[in-house]
Amino acid sequence: MVHPEPNQPGLVSSALACACCTNEGQRNVATVALDSGKQQEIESLRFGSKATLFTGEGDVEGIQGIATPAGTYKLSAQWREDRLVLSFRDAAGHTGTLALTRSPTISVFEVDPRDRPDRGQGPTLYKEWKLSAPASGSGVFQPGIARQQILTLILQGGGNSCTSGVDFTHWTLVMQGPKANYTLYGNLVR
Fold this sequence. Notes:
The protein is mainly β. The protein is 8% helix and 44% strand. The chain has 2 helices and 12 strands, in the order αβαβββββββββββ. The protein has helices spanning 11-17, 36-43; strands at 27-33, 46-47, 50-53, 72-80, 83-89, 95-101, 105-111, 125-134, 136-139, 150-159, 168-176, 182-189. Strands 1, 2, 3, 4, 5, 6, 7, 8, 9, 10, 11 and 12 form a 12-stranded antiparallel beta sheet that branches. The radius of gyration is 20 Å and the shape is elongated.
C-alpha cells in the first residue's frame, strides 16, 4: 500500500476513490461472459413506450421482413425466463413480438470520444453493450424469421469506468440475415 508523504495528504484516498475514473484516449472493446452482475443491470433497464423503425432515405414500405411495416410502434418489454420479449403494436393495431434469448456473452464497447468535457475524474465515455442471439418473433415480424436471422440488442449511453444500468439511455435492435434486415430504436427510461 502506498503511504502518503507528509507533504502529500490524501494520496491514498485519491487513488482508492478513483477506481471508476476515466482517462483521455481510453478504449475498451471486448466480448466477455454475461455474468450475473451485468445480467442484473440489463434486467433493471426500462424501455420507453415508443419504438421507431429506421428507414434512412427510404420509405417504410421498402422494409423487408415485416408484414406491415410502420414508422412507429407502441412498445412493451419484459423478461420471460431467459428471454427478453419485445412486444410491438402499430397505430393500425397490427402486433408482433421479437425475442432475444439470453446469451452467454456480451460485447462491450467503451471509448473516450474526445469531445466530452472532463468532469474532474476523467472524460465521459461513450458506451455500448451488445447482446446477440438467433432471432425469434411472431405476428408482423414472422415473415423475417428464418434459421440464419440474428437479432442484436445494443444498449447505448455514457459514463465512467464503472458501468451500471443508469449509464444507458437508448437502445437499438438490429435484425440481420437472408430474409430481413431492419433496425428499430428508442429510449430507455428511469
